[in-house]
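=== RUN LOG ===
request id: a7f3
mode: sequence -> structure
chains: 1
length: 339
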Amino acid sequence: MDPVRTDGRDIDRSIAVLSGEGSEQRAEPWHEVPRLETDGTTYYGRPLLKESVWTADIPLYFFAGGAAGAALALGAAVQLGARGARARRELRKLSATCHWIGITGSTAGAALLIHDLGRPTRFLNMMRVFRPTSPMNMGTWILAGAAPTAITTGLFINRGGLLGRIGETAGYASGVFGVGLACYTGVLVANSAIPAWQESRRWLPVAFAGSAVSAAAGVLELFYEGGRAERITQKFGAIGRATEVAAAKLMERSASNVPRVGLPFRSGVSGALWKSAGVLTMASLVLSLIPGRSRTIRRLAGGLALGGSLCLRFAVQEIGQASARDARASFEMQRAVTP
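=== RESULT ===
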C-alpha cells in the first residue's frame, strides 16, 4: 500500500482558505495495513475523537477568568457586609481591590479568548444568539457582562451621590456575573465527549470553582495584611482550597471507574501536572490554616495557591488531550455503560 504524504484533505490553498478553530486539525492517514486486535476491539486502533486545537491561551483564560470571577463575587459579598464607619472604610477598600482584580482578570481573559479565536469578530458573532443550553454561548455573555460592570464598580464604588449608587448597583451585578465566570468554564469542559472529562463531569465544575476561589484569595494574600479584611481573605481561600482538593479527588475517582479512562490522571505529562496541582494546593491549604500567620507564610500560601490553580487548568487540558488520543478509552467507557 502506497503511503499517503498529504494532510488527507488536499485543499488547494490558491483557491481556498483554511480558517476557524478546526482548520489546523489533520486527517491521519493509514501507514500500514490494519491488523486484528487481540487486546480489546477498537476501530483498528484509531481514536474516535479529535484532540482539541486549544493552545496555552485557553487554560490561561480559565485561570485568569476564574480568579477574576471569584474576586468579583467576593467584592459583592463584602459590599453587603460593610456596616459601621470603620468597618465600612476597611471593607470598602477590600471590595474595591476585589473589583480591580476582577477588571484585570476579565480583561486579560477576554484578550486571551479573542487571541485563541483568531479574529475579534468571532467573539462578537457568538453574541448574535442567546442560547441557555450552550455553555460556550452563556460564557460569552457572562464575560461580556462581567468586565463592564466591574469597570463601572471600580470607577464609582467609593464616590458619593448618583455615581456612588451606580457603582454600588454595578458591584452587585458584577458579583452575579463573577459567580458565572468562576464556574462556567468547568461546565463547558464537562460538556464533552472526551472520556476523562465526561466521566468526571459532575465534579469538574466544582473543582474549577474551588480553584477560582483559591486563586483570587491567593492574589489578595500577596498584598493584603491585617484587620478584618485579612481574616475574610484567609477564610475565603481556605474554603476554596479545600473544595478544590476534594473535588479533584472525586474527579479522579469518577474517571477511574473505568480504569483506562482514569489513566491520564496518573501518568504522563497530564499526570505530573495533576499531581503538582494537588500538592501545591494542599500545601497552601495547610499554611492558610496556621493561626497567627506571619507575612511571609501568608504570601507563601498565596503563591502556592496560584501555582496550584494554574497547574490544575493546564492539567485538565492535558488530560483531555491524552484521553482523546486513547482509542481504547472511548470504547471501554461506552462498553461500561452499555447494559
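=== NOTES ===
The domain at 193-329 is CATH 1.20.120 (Four Helix Bundle (Hemerythrin (Met), subunit A)).
The chain has twelve helices and no strands.
=== END ===
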